[in-house]
Structure formats: C-alpha cells, structure tokens
Amino acid sequence: MLALLTSVEAAGDEATGLAALTALARRPGAVIRLDVAARRTHRPEGSGRWTAPSSPLGLALACTHRDGRIRERAVREVVARPLPELVPFLVVRTGDWVREVRDRARAGLAVLLHDDPARFLPAAAGVGLRIERWLRGTFVRNQLLATATDPRAPLESLLASPDREVRLFAFTAGTWRLDRKVSVALTAPDVRLRSAAAEAVARDCAWTGRVEVLRRLAASPHAEVRVQALTGLVRLGRDAEVLPYLDDTSSLVRALARAAASRQGVDVPAYYRSRVSPGAIDGFAEVRGDGRHLVELLSHPSATIRARAVRALRLLEQAPADRVLSMLRDPSSPVVREATAAVRSVPPTLPWELLADERPAVRLAGYRLARQLGPVAELRAALTAVGDGHVRLARRGRADAARMARSLVSVPWRRRTVVPLEPGAQDGPELRALLERAAAGLDEQTSHLLREHLARPDRPVP
Question: Whole-angstrom Cα distance, residue 112 to residue 107?
Fold first, then answer.
C-alpha cells in the first residue's frame, strides 16, 4: 500500500491521491498499519531538506516519514491547511515517540476539534479510538470525549457510522432520549452497542417504572437485550413476568429466570421435564438431575431436539452407550457431532467403518473417534483423510499428519511431552501403504519424516 500511494504521489495525480485518502479514512486500522510500515521504509528525501508537498497525499505520506523533522513539518502543514482526509494521520502523530512531533500534533488536533467538531470529529474518531491502546493514546480519547459534549458534535451521524467502535463511542458519549435508546437496543447491528443501549434503557425504566418498555425489550430476538430487560423487571419486583423465560435459548436468560423461579417457589426441574424445547433440555442439564426422560427424546422427529438431548445426557454423564453409537449415522449432521462428543468407549473397528461412509459428517466423526485409540490410529486416520473429497477433512488430515511427523524429531526446545509413535508388526505395512497413497497431498518434509520413521518401526528417529 505504501508503494502504491508513493507512486500515485510521484505521478502528480492529486484527484486519485485524495480518493485514496478518503478510502483510507474509512479503514482506521489500515492507517495505523501504513504508519508502522512507513517507519521501516527508508526514504532518502529525509536528509534535512524540506519542500512542503503540494498535494494532500504528499502531506499524509510526510506525516508517516521515519525522519522526525519531516514529520514535525508535515504536522505543521496539516494543521495550517486542514482536511478531514488528513486528520487520521494527525491523530496518529499525537502518539509519536518524538516529543516535538507529539506536542505539535496534540495542540493542532485540539484546535481543530474545538473550532469545527462537525467536520473533524468523524475524521478523528476511528483512528483515535484505536490508538487509545497505545502508551500515549489517552490524550486523543480525552479530546474525543470533550468534543462529544459540544452541541455541534454530530453524534447522531456517528451513531450510524460503519465503524462499530465509533458507533459505541457515540452512544456512550452522548445523551439520548429513551425512545432513541430503545431503537438502538432493538436495531443496532453489533452486540456491544445493543447491550449498552439495553442496559441504559433498563436502568432508566427501573427508576421510572416503565414496565411496558421493558416488556418490549424482553421480546427482542437478541439474548443480550432480553437479559437487560428481564433484569429491569426483576428490579421492579415482577418475578412472575420472568418465569416464562425458564426455557429461553440463552443460558444467561435461563439463569436469571431460575433465580426468579426460586423466589416464586417454582419446581424448576419439574418445569423442564414437562416441556420439550431446546431451552428446556439445556436448562435441565444445567440444574442436573435424573435424565431418563431425555433418553426418549433421542428418537424425536426434530433433529434439534435429538442433538440437544444427547448433549444434555453427555453433560449429565447419563448417555446410554448403545443409543449414542447408533446416532453416529443419524441423518442430521449436528446430531452426529453431538453423538461423537458423547462416545466414551470407542470400539476398535468403528472409526474405520465410519471413515468409509459416504457422508462427510460421518467420516469426520470416525476421524475424531480414531484419535481416542492412540497415536497409531490417529496417524492412520490422518493419512486416510488426506485424500478425502471433503475439503475440511482433507485439510485436517494434512495438518495432523504434519504435526505428528514433526513431533517425531527430537528438538531441545520442545517442552511438551509427545506420545511416541510405535506401530506394531501388523500396523507398519498398512501405514506405509497409506503413506504412499497420501504422499501427493503431503509436503515433502512430512512425507520424508514419516517414511523414515515407518521404515524403522522398532525405534524413533533420533
């Protein structure tokens, strides 16, 4: 990017350069990475001569120069003829490691934000919020907060910014009407902003008794909003309105509802047993108990219910082994994944039977189960999977084969204990045959290390 921008500046194409700066202003992270790259690039024009660039792009590049004198003069020019497209580069310089550059950039940014916040606050916010993590980034954050209190600050437009950091800053720094907070909580595109808005609404409603607003938020499809709304209802003493959320899909909402249920004297396990829903099944696993009623749900017509039931039984350590093994070929891939996680004792032939199945989800289950049989079986499964037609499984097989091959080489910096690969007399020929078939999909080093080791199965490669 630095080379491209330098070539645009050298060509004297000011319109293209300004368009490039406009695009960069929408990518604050790119501005910071560009500055880091520029410090590592030697540009011979920094030998003490200074000619003020005539274009905005030239000034931006000068702000990133490794020579502190050039950066200081560029900052002075940016402040003297400010443009919103150049403000992100000025913000970066407020954290400069050279005090003269840093002080001049800070003074200039403070003046610009004070004189015209409507023009310069949107330009400074994206980069400013990210360099706050730097050692010297607190100054910019304080300036942004001070500017946000100015009546001229365009907080409403910042609330619609494509940058989620800027949206959150605009909301937390502004003073908003209750209806606007509700709108943000219900429609904001990111979870942090929705949660912050819902928390603010719940706090206001708890003080003012606006139950109808809390009920509206409690119907939100987003769990973080429902949690805040239900918390507000609990603070208003309306535990009875929280009880219907005992089988909510969110674990945090269920926990809040169970606390309310205990105060109401509700038998929570009995409630969960009486309902067949994903939330009720998950909730029963959380309160623990006798899960015999869940066994019946392993044959439920809904794949979602079957998957939740086998997971709940696994968490309760009550999964029937025979039923779980039969579910490894369930028509639903999520059910197969949950059943795979619930298998405790793997029959020796089962992984290879599953690896030969026509369905990728079943083959992946066989691959995962093979790893429970030890390193020899794990290598056999990895070499088998290398040539699989399913991209994800083949990629995993290559990665595991490479990892196991490298673990065979003794190196002084490896602290993790590696289980030795010691194939028996019957395993060696099969592994060598699998390796030859998989060699085309493996890198040269992996193939070499495995071939050397399998050629001498009685001892590891030193």
Answer: 9
**Nearest residue to 212 (alpha-carbon basis) of 188, 187, 238:** 238
Q: Both tokens of residue 72?
A: 């200081």
Closest CA to 96 of 69, 121, 78: 69
DSSP 331-388: SSHHHHHHHHHH--S--TTHHHHHHTSSSHHHHHHHHHHHGGG-HHHHHHHHHHHHT-
Q: Please state the rounded mean pLDDT for residues 93-109.
A: 93
**Residue 163 near residue 28 (C-beta atoms within 8 A):** yes
| pLDDT-wise least confident of 44-58, 311-325, 436-450 | 44-58
55 contacts: CB under 8 Å, gap ≥ 6: 9, 12, 14, 17, 18
Residue 203 tokens read as 């706090």
Largest CA distance in the chain: 83
Burial class (CB in 10 A: 0-12, 13-18, 19+), 238: middle
The whole-number pLDDT of residue 453 equals 82
CA Rg value for the chain? 31
Element of type H or E holding 197:
helix 191-208
Number of C-alpha atoms within 13 angstroms, CB side, residue 11? 11
Q: Which residue has the tokens 């899960």?
A: 291
Query: What pLDDT was estimated at residue 342?
Result: 96
CA 73 to chain centre: 40
Sign of CA dihedral 158, 161, 166, 171: positive
Q: What is the pTM of this model?
A: 0.80
CA pair distance 168, 196, nearest whole angstrom: 8
At 445, the amino acid letter reads: Q
If one counts every other C-beta atom within 10 angstroms of the C-beta of residue 60, the result is 29
Vertex 318: Cα angle to 317 and 323 (nearest 5): 120
Nearest to 182 by CA among 149, 136, 155, 214: 214
- For the stretch 8-60, pLDDT in tens is 888 888 888 889 999 988 899 999 999 888 877 766 554 445 576 778 998 99
- Other C-beta atoms closer than 10 Å to the C-beta of 181 total 23
Residue reference for tokens 């490894």: 328
DSSP label at residue 297: G
Predicted confidence at residue 326, as pLDDT, reads 94
pLDDT (0 to 100) of residue 417: 55
For residue 144, give every residue at least 6 positions away whose Cβ sits within 8 Å of its Cβ, in sequence order, or none.
113, 121, 124, 125, 128, 129, 169, 173
Q: Tokens representing 415?
A: 């602290």
